[in-house]
Amino acid sequence: MTENSTATGVSALKGRTGADVPAQTRGRTSIADGVVAKIAAMAAREVPGVHSLGAGVARAWGAMRDRVPGGGGGVTRGVSVEVGERQAAVDLDIVVEYGVSIVDVAGDVRSNVVSAVERMTGLEVVEVNIAVGDVHLPDEEESEPGEGRVR
Do 90 and 78 meet the contact criterion of CB atoms below 8 Å apart? Predict the structure, then answer.
């Protein structure tokens, strides 16, 4: 099987053609960058010790954007991907729970993201870069952006 990449950020897996070729390899499959980003985001969130994706200002802006109709999805907030012909690279901004080993959580996130992306897309994940931007404390409440302290 060969791959092809387009300028629109879609990885295309090209199949062979002909009667002597197995049916599952006939034709072409395209995988958009956004698909890889969603897979990586969901895989990262599955890891115990990850409170959320996106850090500080990015979370606040993302939350405000999510509240605006048509403002974009929050699933991939804190996730950036680069998809090539056969490979993908993932950058994640995460917030961890207070008390967890950041090194262990980062390793578990890396492992889970690589496994999920490779299993679901067939792309080789060459790197997963993780930036821990915050630690969620047990007594911190999630505040709604744009809400004041008084009502």
Answer: no
CA dist 61 and 41 (Å) reads 18
Where do we find the tokens 């199949």?
A: 15
pLDDT in tens, 87-118: 999 999 999 999 999 999 999 999 999 999 99
Report the DSSP beta bridge partners of residue 92: 79, 130
pTM (2 decimals)?
Answer: 0.73
In three-state secondary structure terms, 39 is helix
Contact 89, 114 (CB under 8 A): no
Strands 87-97 and 79-83: antiparallel
Contact 128, 92 (CB under 8 A): yes
Instruction: Over range 141-146, report the average pLDDT.
Output: 56
Domains of the chain with CATH codes: 33-136 (3.30.70.1350)
Return d(Cα 100, Cα 50) in angstroms, integer. 9
